[in-house]
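User: Can you predict the 3D structure for this chain?
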Amino acid sequence: MNMLCVGTLAIDSVETPAGSRERVLGGSASYFAYAAGFYTPVRVIGRTGNDWPAEYTQIFLNHGVDWQGVTSDSLAKSYFWKGRYLHDYQDRETLEIQMHGFDRYQPSVPDCFADSQVVFLAAAIPTVQRQVLDQCPNAKLIFADTVDMWIETKRSELLEVLSRIDGLFINDVEARQLTGQSNYVQAARSIQNLGPRWVILKKGEHGCFVLGPSTMLSIPAYPSDQLIDPTGAGDSFAGGLLGHLSQSINAANHPPHARVEIDRKDFVQALLQGTAIASYTIEAFSIERLQQVTHKDIQQRVAELQTLMGN
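Assistant: Here is the predicted structure, written as structure tokens:
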């Protein structure tokens, strides 16, 4: 199934207990697209600025990512994020965000992308997410992500997006913020009532909790001992999950314009794929570790996770 992603293509400066990096490749669409690219070709919708290094674009082209939907703004810089992780890696401080016009970005889906059947709305401004949805009439499977900033400042626009999607990736703290529920199971049920059939609560080192049609399950995180930088782990997780689903679901078996029903077994396998990829992401800054691994490496970690779970 054809896959499309919209989100930020950013330049990050990151500080963690393991070290720091200045002006490295970042952004929600960047991590997602690279992770999903291990499974299927990915189409990207996004914006870069006049400071975007050409070698970053080449990284994606070499990985089979379709860049036709990315526009370059010669009059402004790229989206920039600077952050610091504290000693336990559980708390993160955003030190600086420079949108450089991304808050005014008007996404345009090329005609050649209009047949996209799997759509991922990475953690961008909800109005950007909605505008992309409006231009993808053939979407059969739509998942989204969001962050605390949009829950707080763009709630009504976010709720509109949630009413139109099949699944939501959200961390446990954001789920409580969105729903007002302190119990994560109750929060997931409340999110389902807003529209998404599948709710994936990301819980960091504690893995994830999933609530879906006739489905309730937990998947542990891979027990890595090489934590360097958690940035992008959630987007990589989503990329691995949806990349696997895009590859495994046969669109021919679904009527035109009908939403895809996901088999529980397929979803569990997709969760394991996403978990394995996220475990590699955290082992280096930016996508440096992902550039070093192969599809075979990912499957090895999936097998180790299955053993860990007793499967």
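The chain is about 35% helix and 25% strand. The chain has a mean pLDDT of 92.
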